[in-house]
């Protein structure tokens, strides 16, 4: 393992509340458990398969995102650029990419924070993290297998939290938002991409049915923004496309 990667893992270790085992190029706090928390449905189970990580970043995620966002929503590359901008990442910052999958956003964050910063990719799926580690990313990137709902980082340790295309699959999304606020430094920024149910009642019913079949929670438009305000976030911005919303804000 390159010395630079060890350095990134060592820096991540210093931010953890409890020691973690080094496994296959990432830190692991889940051990033999298949996942953290109860399963929520088909979509979440697919994330743990061997095949999906191989096609996730290039085919699955862009195609699924386009279907959910519609023709006017950003591409996956556009999402990465928007998330990086909304987090306001600068050299030396620490960014946390929750439910990082194969690390597409994490690598971009690593480039933004530079060699003096740290981009942490957190996921619960071994197969996703194996693919992420295998990618050629910046030296400032380190990966962690842990509970995405309750990231095991010390309080007020990161400058930015990103959680794209995952909050609606969590069994406890409100607990996750509490955790994100806890690990952010005062003035730190958050950006989320999650579901957004339409306001028109017939469309709402279809949205809810689709969410139930796939095991995903359908949030109302404005619901996530309100949840962030209740936790002390300010400067909330909300962007809607199809059945998705991108919500960002600053803590304090």
UniProtKB/TrEMBL annotation:
Q: What InterPro entries does the record point to? A: Methyltransf_11, SAM-dependent_MTases_sf
Q: Which UniProt keywords apply?
A: Methyltransferase, Transferase
Q: Keyword check for Translocase, yes or no.
A: no
Top-level lineage group: Bacteria
User: Boundaries of each Methyltransferase type domain copy?
Assistant: 96-192
Q: Which GO terms describe its biological process?
A: methylation
Which molecular function term from Gene Ontology is one that the record holds? Answer: S-adenosylmethionine-dependent methyltransferase activity
Q: What is this protein called?
A: Methyltransferase domain-containing protein
User: Which organism encodes this protein?
Assistant: Amycolatopsis eburnea
């Amino acid at each position: 393992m390159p010395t630079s990667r060890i350095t990134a893992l060592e820096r991540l270790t210093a931010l953890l509340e409890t020691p973690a085992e080094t496994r296959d190029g990432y830190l692991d706090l889940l051990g033999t458990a298949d996942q953290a928390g109860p399963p929520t449905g088909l979509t979440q189970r697919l994330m743990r398969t061997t095949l999906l990580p191989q096609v996730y970043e290039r085919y699955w995620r862009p195609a699924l995102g386009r279907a959910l966002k519609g023709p006017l929503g950003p591409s996956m590359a556009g999402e990465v650029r928007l998330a990086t901008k909304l987090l306001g990442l600068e050299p030396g910052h620490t960014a946390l990419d929750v439910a990082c999958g194969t690390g597409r956003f994490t690598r971009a964050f690593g480039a933004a924070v530079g060699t003096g910063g740290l981009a942490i990719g957190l996921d619960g799926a071994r197969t996703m993290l194996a693919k992420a580690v295998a990618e050629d990313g910046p030296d400032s990137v380190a990966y962690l297998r842990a509970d995405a709902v309750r990231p095991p980082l010390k309080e007020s340790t990161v400058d930015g939290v990103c959680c794209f295309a995952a909050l609606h699959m969590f069994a406890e999304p409100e607990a996750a938002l509490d955790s994100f606020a806890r690990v952010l430094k005062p003035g730190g920024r958050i950006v989320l991409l999650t579901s957004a149910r339409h306001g028109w009642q017939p469309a709402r019913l279809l949205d809810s049915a689709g969410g139930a079949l796939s095991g995903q929670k359908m949030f109302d438009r404005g619901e996530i923004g309100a949840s962030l305000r209740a936790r002390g976030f300010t400067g909330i911005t909300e962007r809607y496309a199809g059945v998705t919303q991108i919500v960002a804000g600053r803590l304090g």
